[in-house]
Design brief:
Layout lengths: L1 H12 L5 E5 L5 H9 L4 E4 L2 H7 L8 E4 L8 H4 L5 E5 L2 H13 L4 E7 L12 H9 L1 H4 L4 E8 L7 H22 L8 E3 L6 H6 L4 E4 L1 H4 L6
Parallel strand pairs: 1-2, 1-8, 2-3, 3-4, 4-5, 5-6, 6-7
The structure holds pyridoxal-5'-phosphate (PLP).
Pyridoxal-5'-phosphate binds next to strand 8 and helix 10.
Length: 223
């Protein structure tokens, strides 16, 4: 099952500019190993403790992406290995990432998470907040953090027009930030959007990272 589902996504993404983040939250390590054996290399978890517990059990060449809200006091638990924190929503978090990454003499990548959904429960920055961060002296002094793009979670709706509008909004933010702050930085190139239910639209609207869990592993059991 896992292998067939991953093969399906690998085929969907072949020849596109988009890569798959296999969302492994709630699943046991043997399932993650099966996904790895089927070719998955980018893994997404939304909880620090869960990611830190699984990482030592699995091959070292996995790129670990944190996709859930991150409290600053927990950065230290994943700083030795995390590849990208997709949920960067404050300067305070960036400063803590810098401090912890420096301790391990490495660079942690980050995506700025934006609020694009209609529901106001969804977290994330608005454009002026992101610009305030990018214009700050403190941001420009970071040496162990590298922003590589943007991320957002769309509204949970079957309404394709609305989803497209939200994905276009995120892409617009990306284009603006790219032009204003990262024009000569080739590594600022990621637009992380699209999940099991809406990844097709997200790819059409320019996603470079889809985050897919249930379409690969089946429904999650949170017990
Ligand atoms: C769980 C999760 C996903 C994957 O959701 P599925 O619907 O299972 O594909 C993607 N992004 C974030 C931020 C998540 O928390």
């Amino acid at each position: 099952m896992i292998q067939e589902n991953l093969n399906f996504f690998q085929q969907q993404l072949a020849g596109t500019n988009c890569r798959l983040v296999t969302v492994t939250k709630t699943h046991a390590v043997d399932k993650l190993q099966q996904a790895y054996d089927a070719g998955a290399r980018l893994f997404g978890e939304n909880k620090v403790q869960e990611m830190a517990a699984k990482q030592p059990e699995l091959p070292a060449d996995i790129e670990w992406h944190l996709i859930g809200h991150l409290q600053t006091n927990k950065v230290k638990y994943i700083a030795p290995f995390v590849h990208t924190i997709q949920s960067v929503d404050s300067l305070k978090l960036l400063l803590e990432m810098e401090k912890q990454a420096a301790k391990h003499n490495r660079v942690i990548r980050g995506l700025l998470q934006f609020h694009i959904a209609a529901e106001d429960t969804k977290t994330g920055l608005i454009l002026p907040e992101a610009e305030e961060i990018l214009q700050s002296e403190e941001f420009r002094a970071l040496r162990h953090v590298r922003l590589t793009g943007v991320m957002a979670i769309a509204t949970n709706t079957p309404d394709e027009a609305q989803l497209r509008q939200e994905f276009q909004l995120l892409r617009g933010y990306f284009e603006q930030l790219k032009a204003r702050y990262f024009a000569s930085d080739d590594e600022f190139r990621e637009i992380s959007m699209g999940m099991s239910s809406d990844y097709r639209l997200a790819i059409e609207e320019g996603s470079t990272l889809i985050r897919v869990g249930s379409a690969i592993f089946g429904a999650r059991n949170y017990q």
